[in-house]
Amino acid sequence: MSSTFTDAKGRLEPAIEYADVSADTLERLRLPKSVLKVSIPVRMDDGSLKVFAGYRVRYDDTRGPTKGGIRFHPDVNADEVQSLAFWMTFKCAALDLPFGGGKGGVAVDPKELSTHELERLSRGYIDAVADFIGPNVDIPAPDVATNQLVMGWMMDQYSTITRRIEPGVITGKPVAMGGSLGRDTATGDGAWHVIRTLAPRLLDGDGPWTAAIQGFGNAGQALATQLHNAGHKVVAVSDSKTALYNEEGIDVPAARQAKADGALEADGAKEIDAEELLALDVDLLCPSALENAIHEDNAGDVRARTLWEVANGPVTAAADDVLIGNDVIVVPDILVNAGGVTVSWFEWVQNRAGLPWSADEVRERLEEHMVEATEAIWSLRDEHDIPLRTAAYAHALRRIGEAVDARGSAGDYK
Ligand code: GLU
């Protein structure tokens, strides 16, 4: 059976020779620290009881408390959550955040729940995992189909259970409950900093570029807005129901408004097949939805010059090989989408200090952090002539290795 987790771990292999880490480090990273599976009973509005499966995985906490979002999606399963927690471990290390990696999820289609059912599910999730999270232990955040509202309920529930106000237990909260300014657009904004730093080098010039964005959720919308505002052309966008194409460029603000009003639409755009979007001849292809969107069978169709992994794990390992063979440059998720968790870190710092930052301060620090990590990974790629993904993993692995060695005792046995 194919496993996203096996695929995810395979990405580490080529990076090992550039990271110079101990055998202890690699052994530590072989298995997750803990995998929790819970059942969440929810009283539905019609009076019936439904039980949902929930997960929380802490992959590695050598560099700090584990950190990562919670997703609500019908396909959530242990293999997926474990992979996502593995990616968070490397993402946090790549960005030098004082965190390890974790992830959570509930197998549910949130669109089928009323707001009250969703609240009971969110609070029920925290009832089930409360003993395993905490501001110094494991810190959840939003992910696919969870948002500020859900994070607010979760933080409130955790505070009720522990009988103290604990804003630092969850990030991505509403600003009125201790959330950070700029967290809502941070993933897309961070991706934009990576693109504006690297795309001129990869595409020989400043554009204007054409972009196709698969997935018009939180990250896809914020990135589309940045591209649009900077004068580039977003020629295609899609969500789970439709894919739209306009050679002249989609009116991004109008498409966002239509999506907020209920359905993704754009004047002058024609509907295309979801797979067609991935095969468009564009400068930037930005898969921004779920993992494994580009796989062995459709990777050969990709005609974009560069591919930016705004989603977690949108390109399988087999697809990576095809893309490399076809000279499509892939910029990896653990760098491209790290803006979200970076501003989550800022939120956690603000909560601990009790001192909120201005929007400008968040913006400036995010930019500085994203550009620094991008340049470090780019230099490693140049130095060894390796793919950016290998460079990103090597960069992160070095940092994890230093932390493992710093607390380890392997040297005493030599
Ligand atoms: N879910 C986001 C990610 O995959 C954010 C995680 C966080 O803020 O902790 O990076």
UniProtKB/TrEMBL annotation:
PANTHER family: GLUTAMATE DEHYDROGENASE, GLUTAMATE DEHYDROGENASE 1, MITOCHONDRIAL. Substrate binds at residues 67, 91, 344. The keyword Methyltransferase does not apply. The active site is at 103 (proton donor). It comes from uncultured Solirubrobacteraceae bacterium. NAD(+) binds at residues 187, 218. Belongs to the Glu/Leu/Phe/Val dehydrogenases family. Keywords: NAD, Nucleotide-binding, Oxidoreductase. Pfam families: ELFV_dehydrog, ELFV_dehydrog_N. SUPFAM superfamilies: Aminoacid dehydrogenase-like, N-terminal domain, NAD(P)-binding Rossmann-fold domains. It comes from the Bacteria. The record marks 143 as: Important for catalysis. GO terms for molecular function: glutamate dehydrogenase (NAD+) activity; nucleotide binding. This is Glutamate dehydrogenase.
